[in-house]
Amino acid sequence: MRVHLALASVLLSPMLHADSLPADKPTLEVWPQICVAVPETPCKLDLQLKWRGTSHNRICILSDNAQFTRWCNDSNAVHSLTLNITTDKDIQFEMVDPETNRIIADAKFRVTQLSEPQKRRRYRNPWSLF
Amino acid sequence: MTLSWRAILLILSILLMPKSFASSDSEGVSSLGEPMSPSQWQFAVAVGWGEKSNPLFDYDDIPVYVLPSVAWYGERAFFDNGAIGYTLWDGYDYSINLIGGFGDDAGWFNRWDPSNLFIGGLSGGSPAPATDMSTKFSRTPASSETEPSYNLKDRKLTYMGGGEVNWYTSMGNWRALIMQDILNVHNGQIAMLSWYNYWQIMKLRVDLTLSLNWKSSQLVDYYYGISADEASWGSPTYDGRGTFSPTIELDFSYPITKKLELLLLGRYTRFGAGIADSPLLKEDNSFGVFFGAAYRF
After folding, report:
1. How far apart are CA B164 and CA B171, in angstroms?
2. Residue A74, Cβ density class (10 Å: 0-12 exposed, 13-18 middle, ≥19 buried)
3. CA separation (Å) from B113 to A118, B117, B159, B282?
4. Strands of B74-158, DSSP E
5. Is the distance from CB of B199 to CB of B31 less than 8 angstroms?
6. Keywords for this entry (chain B) (predicted)?
7. Per-residue pLDDT tens for A81-118?
């Protein structure tokens, strides 16, 4: 299935390790970060969002993708979210404080289109008589 | 009178209509000017009924039951229905190609000439020449004449090589082509200037080609001339002359599915005087027609 071709080419970059980041700075990570889509086939995959370093009890995650517009945690024990996404466009995620709507951190999932092979102009009529 | 001028203006405005109107979303065989994926063979075959009239005395018209279409385009080299080419320049507005292909005149004399390849062959049909090759040839005499007869030598097929320039405009594509016999058969030349455009009317695609073909005196004399040793006593000889022949080709295609389309093809050539004056010709023109279904593999 062509979708699987897109999936197979998804895992281009490793997830950033939160341990290597400053502990006091809230971070939002998306994994994978990039999907390479074959022409006319969107990326279909499970996106994992993880966040650390926030002192807020509640956070919400927003995106500019219609399939996932807003999600809020129920408790501060939750630090990850998995989304099943089908898209051929980049998705911008933002983690916000629901009480102030202030952006705490953000992350971007990128979709790269595999370029179409270059085509040539045909010089002859395929059905010309004689 | 006013109405006829309006009709002419309407036809002209359609013919010269910008390409934006004529954009094609056909998903069948790539048509002229449409994109070809590089290094992929494109095979298609049309099956139906058609006929190519033979202007020569004593040679049958050529049935057309099967039309193949085979094309391959590499990064620069290409093969397209018998034409072999190499692109020197391919820009947005124009392209320049080295081009080679079989001459088409031998096809009148030999049913199995490459220019007639596959045409009618798979479904039977009578071979074009009543007698093949070294042909006892007689034409219908005028009442007062003695019937002329000829013992024609073989008119050999040859391969032509040369170059072409294609110029793409919003009001159609122009092509100038010149080729030389490269197998030393007749050492003649051909040149062609053509204009091509198409229109998309709903799903119906209409392709129109107008061309003016010039053939040199060596070529015309080789195929349509009659030497003294070919003519029986009293029969006229003929020296071919370089000549211009206009051609119009009008094609209609209508897609049924992504791979299947209906075709109606028509072509008419009026031979220039250098060819038409030959005693070998019974007609000064040739027409072809084909109706059928085409399938892309």
Report:
1. 19
2. exposed
3. 36, 6, 12, 21
4. 77-80, 83-90, 94-102, 135-138, 149-152
5. no
6. Cell outer membrane, Membrane, Signal
7. 999 989 988 999 999 988 888 999 999 999 887 776 67
pLDDT tens digits for range B249-282 = 999 999 999 899 999 999 999 999 999 999 999 9
Most confidently modeled of A93-97, B8-12, B117-121? A93-97
Q: How far is B34 from chain A (nearest CA, A)?
A: 5
Tokens 């897109």 appear where? A6
Which pair of tokens denotes residue A49?
A: 């969002």
Provide the token pair at B140. Answer: 């219908």
pLDDT at position B8: 56
- Most confident of the ranges A1-5, B6-10, B133-137: B6-10
- Residues with Cβ within 8 Å of B202's Cβ and at least 6 positions away in sequence, in order, are none
Instruction: Kindly tell me the burial class for residue B289, based on how many C-beta atoms sit within 10 Å of its own C-beta (0-12, 13-18, 19 or more).
Output: middle
Domains and CATH numbers, chain A: 2-16+26-113 (2.60.40.10)
A117 vs chain B: nearest CA distance in angstroms? Answer: 7
Q: What is the largest CA-CA distance in chain B?
A: 62
